[in-house]
Specification:
Strand order of the largest sheet: 1-2-3-4
Largest sheet: 4 strands, antiparallel
Strand content: 15-25%
Number of strands: 4
Number of helices: 3
Helix content: 10-25%
Shape: elongated
Number of domains: 2
Length: about 150
């Protein structure tokens, strides 16, 4: 009489060979069974907030970044000439974004260009609209260099 361990070992080997043989076929993105498990991909509505919606958030995040990371008292005191520059500038399968630009007045008395985008489902944990922004001349960590060009469409 065979030990139960030998039977389970033989069963595992046969099972492994069966799954191995099944995996030799061509690779596909998702079969109909997998689509039943909600692997259908993201669905975007194109519901992106207007440019003015992001301004208070930019003011808050700019002041926080300047004080915490750069030990600066620089703050945005107002905006002017805010306008949309592009909406979904690439193919429609990409995440919808609204690109905007405007003039930001800082408390040092200098007006500076600000470029920003509002991203559908770009907020924390993909909940709500997200904002990416750059103030020309104050991009101290060069995240969007040169001259905030990477923040434009």
């Amino acid at each position: 009489m065979r030990a139960p361990f030998e039977k389970s070992l033989r069963f595992a080997a046969v099972l492994g060979l069966m799954f191995g043989a099944l995996s030799l076929g061509e690779a596909r993105a998702a079969n109909p069974l997998e689509l039943n498990f909600w692997l259908s991909g993201p669905r975007y509505d194109g519901a992106v907030a207007p440019c003015d919606w992001a301004l208070p958030r930019i003011v808050h995040e700019f002041a926080e970044k300047e004080s915490k990371f750069w030990n600066s008292s620089l703050q945005i005191t107002g905006f002017s000439a805010v306008r949309e520059t592009a909406f979904r500038p690439w193919q429609s399968d990409n995440i919808p974004r609204r690109y905007c630009t405007g003039e930001a007045m800082l408390n040092d008395g200098k007006p500076r260009k600000v470029h920003f985008s509002i991203i559908e489902d770009g907020g924390f944990a993909s909940y709500g609209n997200g904002v990416e922004w750059c103030v020309v001349g104050v991009d101290r960590n060069w995240a969007y260099n040169p001259a905030c060009r990477a923040a434009k469409p």
